[in-house]
Amino acid sequence: MSKNSKVVNLKDKISGNEMDLSLCNLTEVPARELALFPKATVLDLSCNNIILLPPEFCSLTHLMKLDLSKNQLTCLPDDLGSLVNLQHLDLYNNKLTVLPVSFSQLRSLKWLDLKDNPLEPTLAKAAGDCLDEKQCKQCASKVLHHMSAIHEEVDRAREKRLLREKELEKKREAKQREREAREREARKREKAEEKEKRRKEYNAQMAAAAAQEQQKKKNEERKKKNGQAADKKVSVEPPPKPRRSLIGLMFKLLLMLILGLAAAAAACRLTDVRQEAICAPVNAALDDGLAWAGQQEGALRQLLQRLSAAARELLESTQASKN
């Protein structure tokens, strides 16, 4: 209580059940210190410079008489209605315009003075003049009735506000449920689309695998058929006769021998080599051969005719077998 330098000890200000702190030049109320004296049911704080009451002041529920006249109060605590035992309240000559809504809870209030306050018109009309004991008692009764009506209006307004808030909350919840339902439906639709996509991909893969398997079977059947046809062809076609190849080789060798002998005979007959000793046996053999050929001319002609007929028959049989 540094600002309340004149209040050195509250014990010095108490007399019986009365605590007199008037004319102490107080700007603040020592509410916490006052709570230590619950037997002091009468508190006089008049003729000070108190601007407001601290919230802790509303805990002094033991007070029955309170004098706050001739101060600088512009408002009262919102929880003033907690002083349920208060019977006498003097607020003369302050700067109050309104009273807290909780004022209606002061059920024990029997005496009230609100003179010389700039009260708002409806409150001033309810308070009256309060020039004597009777008027101050009427002031307490009328102000309590007036504040109860305001309290009811405040309660109705609060109930309406709460009802509107509940309706808004319900609407928000309904919108939230609708949004969640849409989101669930969207997720459900996405899952169904994804499932359908996977099913189509699976069917496509199975179809591709089946087509590949079918193509593989066709290829195997085609190869099998081609292999059977090749086997049949191989079995139908006779293998080449080694004899024919051997005869051809012998014929070629004989032809080359004859050509070689002919070339040697021609060289020994027509060139300068005929004078050589090596050509003597060749020329002798050639002369003997020509003589023998002259003798065998008829037999050779018959042989040639037979060979020609045999070649013709072989040619015709070959063409017939091809057809």
UniProtKB/TrEMBL annotation:
Localization, UniProt: Endoplasmic reticulum membrane; Microsome membrane; Nucleus envelope
This protein's record includes keyword Cytoplasm: no
Assigned keywords, A-Z: Coiled coil, Endoplasmic reticulum, Leucine-rich repeat, Membrane, Microsome, Nucleus, Repeat, Signal-anchor, Transmembrane, Transmembrane helix
Membrane topology field: Single-pass type II membrane protein
TM segment ranges: 249-267
Ribosomal protein found in the keyword field: no
One GO term describing the cellular component: endoplasmic reticulum membrane
Chain intervals for the UniProt region annotation (Disordered): 169-242
Domain of life of the native organism: Eukaryota
Compositional bias of kind Low complexity: 203-213
Compositional bias ranges of the Basic and acidic residues kind: 169-202, 214-223
Main location: endoplasmic reticulum
Pfam families noted in UniProt: LRR_1, LRR_8
Protein name, as recorded: Leucine-rich repeat-containing protein 59
Protein species of origin: Menidia menidia (Atlantic silverside)
UniProt lineage: Eukaryota, Metazoa, Chordata, Craniata, Vertebrata
